[in-house]
Amino acid sequence: xxxxxxxxxxxxxxxxxxxxxxxxxxxxxxxxxxxxxxxxxxxxxxxxxxxxxxxxxxxxxxxxxxxxxxxxxxxxxxxxxxxxxxxxxxxxxxxxxxxxxxxxxxxxxxxxxxxxxxxxxxxxxxxxxxxxxxxxxxxxxxxxxxxxxxxxxxxxxxxxxxxxxxxxxxxxxxxxxxxxxxxxxxxxxxxxxxxxxxxxxxxxxxxxxxxxxxxxxxxxxxxxxxxxxxxxxxxxxxxxxxxxxxxxxxxxxxxxxxxxxxxxxxxxxxxxxxxxxxxxxxxxxxxxxxxxxxxxxxxxxxxxxxxxxxxxxxxxxxxxxxxxxxxxxxxxxxxxxxxxxxxxxxxxxxxxxxxxxxxxxxxxxxxxxxxxxxxxxxxxxxxxxxxxxxxxxxxxxxxxxxxxxxxxxxxxxxxxxxxxxxxxxxxxxxxxxxxxxxxxxxxxxxxxxxxxxxxxxxxxxxxxxx
Length: 466
Hints:
By secondary structure, the protein is α/β, with parallel strands linked by helices. It is 47% helix and 10% strand. The chain contains 16 helices and seven strands. α1 (6-14) crosses α5, α9 runs antiparallel to α10 and α10 packs across α13 (339-346). The radius of gyration is 24 Å and the shape is elongated. The chain starts with 5 loop residues before the first helix and ends in a 38-residue tail after the last helix. Mean pLDDT is 78; it is low at 295-325 and 440-466.
């Protein structure tokens, strides 16, 4: 990272913190897709956000100048940083009263960065990165295609991180325009961002995924191996979008802010106790990380009802024709390799005795991963509630287990409750389950090549052990 750049300052401030930042490498087309999706969200609302952007060169701003004139109509203030070249300051957009241009010096490290920082009362988002150096590109050298340029950085919806980055950007602007920096600080202080509601994030993520698919379609394909690499890159970025949505849902729950990570660790350990194959444990872990997408009842369906019913029938023959899908899971279904995950999440609310939702499946007709997820999610919730009740003691795991046992053979699979009992015995004897926050910037590791909706991996598996 370039010394003195905003990205480098952000990384340095979190280098030894309890929540280090995980950066990723993104194609330019991916960043264009992300920025356009986030900008489009501004255009659909009138919540007067503060927007701070940085372009590497004025000419890149000129390509987006008319778009930013439209964004200005929905924004309180827009600040655009770039080196002052190619008519940067002469374009009519720069003359609008709520747009300020900051001409960066050519040797300013921020001139090598690409930023989009959005602060609104009900919505925060950020893309921040800088281009790889020639040495970073390695033996292949600099790309000949502009869309194949690569950037190092991150994108997020997390309010605290977005606010922190906005403060760094304003401090940098102060070196050029102290009066503007003061005005921006006042605007920022007047905004009190809240964690974006689940359905709001779902809308943004849906738009991000759509833009990613379109953006990849504009890339030139040289060879079959190149196409395979681009496909993996697309899937990885789509998974990142959904993991960030799940992360926001956790952050919004101040009484259970690490539920997804804890449920994922419990589910993975259950899978190991059941001697499940590695690919199935990996799939179970991803479903656990995303399992709280379920409450997004206001999320807009991304697939037509006919397509939903057909896809659902193919994967779940036991489901009635009119079976509704969990909206959060519907969004996952637009990615073929996540349809199995959507199925697991959708059926986590089924009951062993057949009285659950959405399909009224019973017994072994409920996917095994859904049964595991349902049980460990409830166990984690019970443990967490005891922690906050002030009644927590050495028997906290046993208390939570007892609550699950009361629903054995009605809500929960009795054999899985027996397995959970073994796990609780281990916890009582000092078994430590590491809570690993996923590196969202490299989400592809969560997938397995056998996750194909036509393969055996999408079948209901009811074998507990070999």
